[in-house]
Amino acid sequence: MHPTDKPIGIGVLGYGTIGTAVIEYFLDKKPDGLKIKSVLIRDPAKPRTRSMPLTTSLDDIIHDDDIQIVVELLDGNKDDKAYNAIRQALEQKKSVVTANKAVMSKYLVDLITYADTQDVSIAFEASVCGSVPIIRTLNEFLRYDDITSITGVVNGTCNFILSEMMNGNSFDAALKVAQSRGYAESDPTLDLDGTDSLQKLAILGSLAFSREVPPTQLYQCGLIDKAGTRLLDPADFYFAKREGYTIKLIGCVRREDDTIVGGVFPAFVPTSHTLSTVTGSFNGLVIDGDLIQSHCYIGPGAGGAPTASAVISDIFDVSARIRGEFPLCYGIRERGLSLGNFEDSLSEGYVRSYSPNIPGGFAQKLGILSQLGVNVNSAINVEGIVRPGTDADETPDFIQIFPAKNRVMRKALDNFSDKGVHDPFFLRMVR
């Protein structure tokens, strides 16, 4: 920057964990040509360790002519408030950097299009996969490739918990460690029920397939259900280790002919698969395309530091565009794809269930699958493990099925329950 040039002003909305890391970076590093002008806070009486201009009014930042970049780091659960703040900033022709996956998963196409009409930028690398530059990869390096699928681990909290459980630790112990290390919120529900992963998958799908992919159109199954019931049990981890798998919470969005289908679900991943090496709080994605074939991206995903790193990188990129050094744009290239129904797509994997050790019990389960047209590959009974929370003489069995429609498998599980089979669950498999 020339000594007479005016620094680009930054307004930060939010002074939480990520906001603090971003603010301290700019105060400590003092990068040339960028300056924090104001920070939006909720509680002016709260003690602060650093001195800087603070405000409790969004308008003070939105209407400040010395601020060219608004960094939105508000409470992620209040997406309407965050959306309105982003929209107002764009209306005032200010570029926006956000880490808000809830907002971008719902309004990505709308906000990108509006920013373009205002001749400003919106950057959201931090909304997906922490410090893994996957948004930039899709937007720049793979922009003109026809992506066929994105499969991966996009929630560091769940991946840390599952990695610990694969090592023999309990769910509760793993969650406690994750919280102590900053990988999990005090209320981790949105991570554990798959909502966080679903929002990230919607963002990736929208960019990869150049159309809006709403989270509501994707299948959701996390480590817990909406009632908070845990869906995996010790038998699943025992079986995974015995058969050469690891367990991951997988997000997958893919092109099937002219439709897009996707979802989030726990799955067995062979130890020979690249994603099996994504352990701890790391994220990992495998992207398949017509030109690139298959690429894998792995890096830190959970915690404030990886997210703050992505936010800071976006700020520098946006500032470069403001100075005219290079364009920052997210192309929505029409590909004529429609949204499909995950229920009509095929999945393979294992049905885990418990039933009393009585004559004909196992044959009954095979009969249910046969009546629904589900082809069985193999069946394994796991001795020495009983159904959690009971002393009953019930041991788990795992029935491996060839690819079948997801709606058929949902019906099969319902029929299992109707026949007195306990805890039936379909663990899909990633190839």
Index terms:
431 residues; alpha/beta; eleven-stranded mixed β-sheet; six-stranded parallel β-sheet; 35% helix
Polypeptide structure, described:
This protein is an alpha/beta fold and 431 residues long. 35% of the residues lie in helices and 26% in strands. The chain has helices at 17-29, 58-62, 79-91, 101-117, 134-141, 156-166, 171-180, 189-192, 195-209, 234-243, 304-322, 361-371, 406-418; strands at residues 8-13, 34-40, 54-55, 69-72, 95-98, 122-123, 147-153, 219-220, 245-256, 259-270, 282-289, 293-300, 338-339, 346-356, 376-381, 394-405, 422-429. The strands form two sheets. Strands 7, 8, 9, 10, 11, 12, 13, 14, 15, 16 and 17 form an eleven-stranded mixed β-sheet that branches. The chain has a six-stranded parallel β-sheet with strand order 3-2-1-4-5-6, with helices on both faces. Helix 1 crosses helix 11 (304-322) and helix 3 (79-91) runs parallel beside helix 4. 45% of the residues are buried.
